[in-house]
TrEMBL record:
GO molecular function: alkylated DNA binding; DNA-3-methyladenine glycosylase activity; DNA-7-methylguanine glycosylase activity
Alphabetic keyword roster: DNA damage, DNA repair
A single BP term in Gene Ontology: base-excision repair, AP site formation
Similarity comment text for this entry: Belongs to the alkylbase DNA glycosidase AlkA family.
InterPro entries from the UniProt entry: Alkylbase_DNA_Glycosylase/TA, DNA_glycosylase, HhH-GPD_domain
Sequence ranges assigned to domain HhH-GPD in this UniProt record: 44-199
GO CC entries: cytoplasm; protein-DNA complex
Name recorded for this polypeptide: 3-methyladenine DNA glycosylase/8-oxoguanine DNA glycosylase
Organism: Candidatus Nitrosocosmicus arcticus
């Protein structure tokens, strides 16, 4: 027998989530398969509106001839260029150079990451300045296609769970873990629906 259909399993295990899935339709998780660029962009885009982040990243690529620079190229680029030509903050310059330096030194072997378990990957990534647990979890979902990730610290997920279960306040981590136990091994897919529910629907019965 093949693998069970994720949506059938999620809908069967959690009727409230099942109604949400039916309302939204099929899921589509867009995967970014370049490991280095995924981490690089996650740092560049932090705490910026998408339009501003897109503009900065476009200038970033333009500076390197419309191609993704290597870690060596990033390290050798003067901070003044990254700050005043491209528009990165000095803090983000520190972060992307720290990422590049760890890759060059071999301290972070990004091509080995897919061989590791989820928590092992998070442990490795949070050693990089500017990459916290949430960013590492997004990397797991949107780059490595890991299907069973629940970002406990994501405010959108918290709000969606609050609405889904008609809670008077945001759920605790304990509640989220208990509720999401029914979604295993597809908590990433459930998370996608929770995000969509916040952006598209006012209420779910």
């Amino acid at each position: 027998m093949g693998e069970p259909d994720p949506l059938v399993l999620l809908s069967k295990q959690d009727l409230k989530l099942g109604r949400l899935i039916k309302s939204i339709g099929n899921y589509s998780i867009q995967i970014h398969d370049n490991l280095f660029e995924s981490l690089l962009k996650s740092i560049v885009y932090q705490q910026l509106a998408s339009s501003a982040a897109n503009a900065i990243y476009s200038r970033f690529l333009l500076y390197y001839g419309e191609t993704l620079p290597s870690p060596h190229q990033i390290i050798s680029t003067p901070d003044a260029v990254l700050r005043f030509t491209i528009g990165l903050s000095f803090k983000k310059i520190e972060y992307i150079k720290n990422l590049a330096a760890k890759i060059v030194s071999g301290e972070l072997n990004i091509h080995y990451l897919p061989c590791l378990q989820d928590e092992e990957i998070i442990t490795e990534l949070v050693k990089v300045k500017g990459i916290g647990r949430w960013t590492a979890e997004m990397f797991l979902i949107f780059c490595l296609k890991r299907e069973d990730v629940l970002p406990l610290g994501d405010l959108g997920v918290k709000k969606a769970i609050q609405k889904l279960y008609n809670l008077s306040e945001l759920p605790t981590d304990e509640f989220m873990l208990e509720a999401s136990s029914k979604w295993k091994p597809y908590r990433s897919i459930a998370t996608w629906y929770l995000w969509k529910s916040i952006s598209k629907f006012d209420s779910i019965g």
